[in-house]
């Protein structure tokens, strides 16, 4: 039986903390990334992609994300005590389908914390942070077959838009852009 999730909190991992975070938090986020990614995509990613993705492959991403000097690149982490429950990373979009919105690159919540409001807490914290920076549009790509995530994003006010094929690095996935208009429009 999993321990109860008590009073989850979010914290924005700041660049000035990078040396400490790179050595302590980045490996934990890499492990969470691999764990959640494999659980989530086991039903529709090729077996080779599931095998290739490991902590060593994800660690450089999290080190760079946590140490990025650009305020539009970073991560917000959900914790309960010393337990990392989830993470949302973000940055400028490299996909034209995002229409220039700031992109939520990853939103991962560990299995025992799913359904406990952690994803909502992370997404809400991201939106609040982006609004402080004057960001008006946020988007993410969700794999078309990930119906659970799509329902969650819709419940959070996300509007599904264009679809596109993401070439990988691990597999070609059919994605849908989900967008939020933080200025109060219709997505």
Mean pLDDT: 90
According to CATH, the homologous superfamily is Gcn5-related N-acetyltransferase (GNAT)
N-to-C series of helices and strands: EHHHEEEHEHEE
C-alpha termini separation: 40 Å
Radius of gyration: 16 Å
- Which strand order does the major sheet show? 1-2-3-4-5-7-6
What would the CATH topology be?
A: Aminopeptidase
Tell me, what is the CATH class? Alpha Beta
Notes on the structure:
The protein has 187 residues and is α+β, with helices and mostly antiparallel strands. The chain has a single domain (9-181), classed as 3-Layer(aba) Sandwich (Aminopeptidase). It is 36% helix and 29% strand. The chain contains 5 helices and 7 strands. The protein has helices at 18-41, 47-52, 55-67, 118-132, 147-155, and strands at residues 9-13, 74-80, 83-92, 102-109, 137-143, 159-166, 173-181. Strands 1-2-3-4-5-7-6 form a 7-stranded mixed sheet, with helices on both faces. Helix 4 (118-132) links the parallel strand 4 (102-109) and strand 5 (137-143). Helix 1 (18-41) crosses helix 3 (55-67). The longest helix is centred in the first third of the chain and has 24 residues, at 18-41. The protein starts with 8 loop residues before the first strand and ends in a 6-residue tail after the last strand. The model has no long low-confidence stretch (mean pLDDT 90).
């Amino acid at each position: 039986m999993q321990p109860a999730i008590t009073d989850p909190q979010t914290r924005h991992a700041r660049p000035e903390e990078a040396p400490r975070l790179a050595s302590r938090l980045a490996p934990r986020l890499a492990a969470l990334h691999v764990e959640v990614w494999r659980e989530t995509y086991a039903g529709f990613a090729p077996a080779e992609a599931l095998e290739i993705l490991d902590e060593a492959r994800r660690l450089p991403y999290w080190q760079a994300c946590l140490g990025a000097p650009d305020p539009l690149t970073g991560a917000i982490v959900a914790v309960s005590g010393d337990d990392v429950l989830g993470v949302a990373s973000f940055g400028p979009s490299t996909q034209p389908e995002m229409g220039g919105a700031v992109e939520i690159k990853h939103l991962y919540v560990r299995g025992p914390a799913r359904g406990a409001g952690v994803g909502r807490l992370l997404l809400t914290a991201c939106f609040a942070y982006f609004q402080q920076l004057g960001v008006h549009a946020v988007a993410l790509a969700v794999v078309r077959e990930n119906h659970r995530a799509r329902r969650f994003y819709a419940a959070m006010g996300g509007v599904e838009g264009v679809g596109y094929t993401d070439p990988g690095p691990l597999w070609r996935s059919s994605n849908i852009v989900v967008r939020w208009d933080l200025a109060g429009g219709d997505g």
